[in-house]
Amino acid sequence: MLHPFLFALAPVLFLFAHNVDQVVLRDIILSAAIMLTLAALAFLFFFVIYRKIRKAAIATSLFLLLFFAYANLFALKEEYGIRQRYLFAGFFIPLFTGLWFLWITSRPLATAARFLTIFASIFLIFSLVPIGTFTARRLLAERAAPEAPRFVGTDSVGIKPDIYYFLVDGYASQWELKNFYGNNNQEFIDYLTKKGFYVVPESRSNYAKTEFSLPTILNFDYLEALSAGGIVSAETTNTDRLLQDHAIGRFLKSQGYTYIHFGSWWDATYQNRYADINVNKGYMPEFPQILYKSIEPFLPFKFAFLDVRRLQWHRAFYQFDELSKVPTRKEPTFTFAHFITHSPFVFNQDGSFVEQEARGITKEGRAQYLGQLLFLNKKLEVLIEAIMAESEIPSIIIIQSDHGSRDTVDESVLDVHDYSDEYLQRRLRNFSAYYLPLDDNMLYNTITPVNTFRVIFNTYFGTDYKILPDKSFITLPGEHYDVIDVTDRVIYE
Questions:
Q1: CA 294 to CA 353: how far, in whole Å?
Q2: Which of 15, 27, 220, 483 has its CA 20 to 30 A from that of 391?
Q3: How confident is the model at residue 138 (pLDDT cuts 50, 70, 90)?
Q4: Mean of pLDDT over the chain
Q5: 168 and 129 both lie in a single domain
Q6: Angle, alpha carbons 147-151-155 (nearest 5°)
């Protein structure tokens, strides 16, 4: 009776193996527990029917295999418009046929059970090998890698303003919005300019992926400098470490700041164990999300607490409400907030819930992206008004995207030159706006996120950090950590 539980673990480990550098262990443990519980309940159900352990185990394995096969087929329905009744037939006919055979047969089924155990074991091995290899290499790399730089602060000069850093994930540049969405975002830019923000006219991101861009921002250095031997690779760069125990947090906490972290649904930023206060609402690991989406078509009604998109919709409103309270705190604060502009699309322009999310790069998908972005603009404007009205000391406010939109074809290329200039420019041109009430003279037209806090700390805390060259990098498909400098191809004309 071992094989049902091996099959229950198989999809969890398969997902882990294909996202081993992004999935956190707690999510795998929780997901495995959910799947083992599902397998146990299914086994008990079938045991009540068959009254034989072996038949119940085989029935459970059959159910699990067909269940996850159906989940994959259901994705085809979304993509190709296959009628759901055909998918249901593809699930229930083999299931009932198999269950009926188990009911009428008098064979011992020892060979079938042995085959299922061997098959499930082989399937697991194919997942465990890459997981084990990656884990071993990462552990060895962590021993060899230098400690992340620790910036020990001295007594700051003058006042200590509150600092707000708003990461607007996937927020397109004005250039991209104008040329590909028919909206140049001028209304929001005019608002920011009127309020005293410096909107960077030729802003670019340093990397095209959040897991690279954000550590660079939070540690105000390129990943090459933060990894062993100056090389960005899976073995030498542990971005999770750089996202949690980052230089900004260490520096500002040494200055007496309270670090308040507003996370997203993304595991890497959902919470920060080094923050003084974490503010978030609703959480479901990736695999339970996939599981729920798989079984949702079978359910007579939806469970609101399992609806990931609804959770994201509620989370944003909750966090904006909580953010408006931060300026009333007496101690100096550093507030990090991660907002998602790209999918899942949950906001219409008026803030209402998007009932049916568009799939793929379509006209409807672009309309939903723009609607979500414009609604985020409105919420940021309200928040800025609250910060400026409630803060006793003028605050520092940074609004910055980690890269451009995702509304680009993920081209399968073998060489960086196979990427079109348009693709690179849409991915790497980003949005940046700075409100530095004391002095913004150190800002310039081409400043990139890696220099954001070098400028802030030099201006407000009397540090002397060197302004780094403003570079932009891309990676090739399948070469996740092999970065290539494409600065010359994404600079503005």
A1: 22
A2: 220
A3: low
A4: 85
A5: no
A6: 155
Non-local CB neighbours of 492 within 8 Å, separated by 6+ positions: 175, 201, 202, 429, 446
Q: Which domain holds residue 110?
A: 3-144
Integer Cα distance of 35 and 429 in angstroms: 42
Helices (H), 19-109: 25-50, 53-80, 84-104
Structure tokens at 402: 């980690």
Domain-embedded: residue 233 = yes
Alpha carbon distance 56, 47 (integer Å): 5
Q: Residue 21: is its pLDDT beyond 90?
A: no
H helical segments located in 105-180: 110-144, 174-180
Contacts with 275 (C-beta within 8 Å, 6 or more apart), sequence order: 249, 259, 260, 261, 336
Better-predicted residue by pLDDT, 81 or 111: 111
Identity of residue 393: I
> Mind listing the pLDDT tens digit for each residue in 246-264?
999 999 999 999 999 999 9
pLDDT band at 17 (very low <50, low <70, confident <90, very high): confident
Reading the block at residue 160, the tokens are 């200590």
Range 297-311 average pLDDT: 70
pLDDT for the residue numbered 152: 46
Cβ proximity of 357 and 368 under 8 Å: yes
Tell me if 378 sits within 8 A of 371, measured CB to CB: no
Is 334 found in the same domain as 298?
A: yes
Displacement of CA 38 from its chain's centroid (Å): 27
Task: Note whether residue 434 is domain-resident.
Answer: yes
| Residue 300 domain-assigned (yes or no) | yes
pLDDT of residue 385: 97
**338 DSSP 8-state letter:** E
Pick the last residue of a domain from 81, 113, 144.
144
Question: Among 323, 326, 372, which Cα is nearest to 351's?
Answer: 372
Cα(first)–Cα(last) distance of the chain, in Å?
66
Looking at the structure, tell me whether residues 470 and 393 fall in a common domain.
yes
Task: Check whether 274 has a pLDDT greater than 90.
Answer: yes
CA distance 19 to 11: 12
Same domain? 261 vs 137: no
Q: Are residues 324 and 228 in the same domain?
A: yes
- Name the residue with tokens 């992926």: 209
